[in-house]
Structures are given as C-alpha cells and as structure tokens.
Design goal:
about 200 residues, alpha+beta, Ribosomal Protein S5, domain 2, Alpha-Beta Plaits, 2 domains, five-stranded antiparallel sheet, about 35% strand
C-alpha cells in the first residue's frame, strides 16, 4: 500500500477555449472512484445535449494508478480526444478527478492532430487554474476499552489528527477510528503503552 499523500482538487471548475471557431468547454471535478467519475460525465452530458461531442477522461484513485482510469471519444475519431485528455490528467500529478470537454463544432475541421491538440489543450487550460489540496491516505482502526480510558483514547485521537467515526457505548466502548496510514502503527503502540496494555488497537 502506498501511504504517500497526493494532490486532489479542492473544487470543480470550467474553462472555455476556442480553436478555429469550435468552442471547447472543459469541466473538471473531484471524483472518488469510477462510479462518481461516470456520474459526473453523465451530469455534464445532460447539461449539453445539443453539443457536438462530450468527451471525457478520468483517474479514479491515486494519480499514478493505471487501473482505475478511463476515457471516451464520444464520437470523435478514435484516439483524438479521450486519450489525449487522459494523458494530460496522468501527467498532472492530481488524483481522483474527472474531466469532460464539451465541443461545439465551429464549422472548420481540425484534422486528427489538431483535435488531439485542441482536446489536450482544453484540459491543460482548466488544470492550470484549479486549486488543489494534499490528501492523506488513511486506514481504519478499532479498539475496545473501559470507560475509564475514554479521555486517553480521545486525547490521542486528537493528537494524531485522527477521527472517531463511531463509538458504541455498551458495557465497554467500541471505537472506530480513521487515521493517517503513516502514523497508525505509532498510534497503536502509544495507546497500548499509555493504557498499561489494557487497550489493543487493531489496524485494518
């Protein structure tokens, strides 16, 4: 598992470019997973049902992931739209994003090379203006403790900048925690030591 943080988009954005009177509207959005990517593509297609083409590309997870990716030429000649768009995404160093380039034909044919440059250029234009944030890779952790250890667990969760996803209060407290993968082992050890071995944190 690669625990290194990576860049993701902070917000969606649209930038319009024009090549020989053809308009290219490049929409980009943060999307987690293939399902969200496809939903975003469908959303933009619904916004522009009269467009000549709505070509798309996505990287569904980490920026270097070569499995959860996809693209569509949406009727443009094969290799002239979706693939150049995906190439730009993969070279951006940003993960979990989808781009849809909506084209309104301007009456002048661009040729295959011209189309590839136009679609790739549209994606470059919108990515040049996006805002990004660093996303930490997290893992799940669980532990069970007596009520006397509540303050300790919650203090350490705060110190490690983790999050309590759920707490089930029965005879004991069952915690579900989300924590930076790079610090999970250290967190587990400190909880065990400071509880005098009473609390064992299990990392998913």
């Amino acid at each position: 598992m690669n625990n290194t943080p990576y860049l993701v988009l902070s917000a969606p954005l649209m930038v319009q470019t024009e090549v020989k009177r053809s308009k290219f509207l490049a929409y980009v959005a943060p999307t987690q997973g293939v399902a969200e990517a496809k939903a975003f593509v469908a959303k933009i297609k619904a916004l522009h049902p009269d467009a000549s083409h709505n070509c798309s590309a996505f990287v569904a997870s980490r920026p270097e992931n070569s499995i959860e990716i996809g693209f569509s030429d949406d009727g443009e000649p094969s290799g002239c739209a979706g693939r150049p768009m995906l190439n730009v995404l993969q070279g951006s160093g940003i993960g979990e994003l989808t781009v849809v380039v909506t084209r309104y034909f301007g009456g002048t044919k661009l040729g295959t090379g011209g189309m590839a440059r136009a679609y790739g250029g549209a994606v470059n234009a919108v990515l040049a203006e996006v805002e990004t944030a660093l996303k930490a890779v997290t893992v799940g952790a669980t532990c069970q403790c007596a009520y006397q250890w509540t303050n300790l667990v919650e203090l350490l969760v705060s110190q490690y900048e983790a999050k309590i996803l759920a707490a089930d209060y029965g005879e004991l407290i069952d915690y579900q925690i989300d924590i930076d993968a790079r610090r999970a082992h250290e967190f587990s050890e400190e909880v065990f030591e400071r509880s005098n071995g009473q609390i064992v944190v299990k990392i998913d």
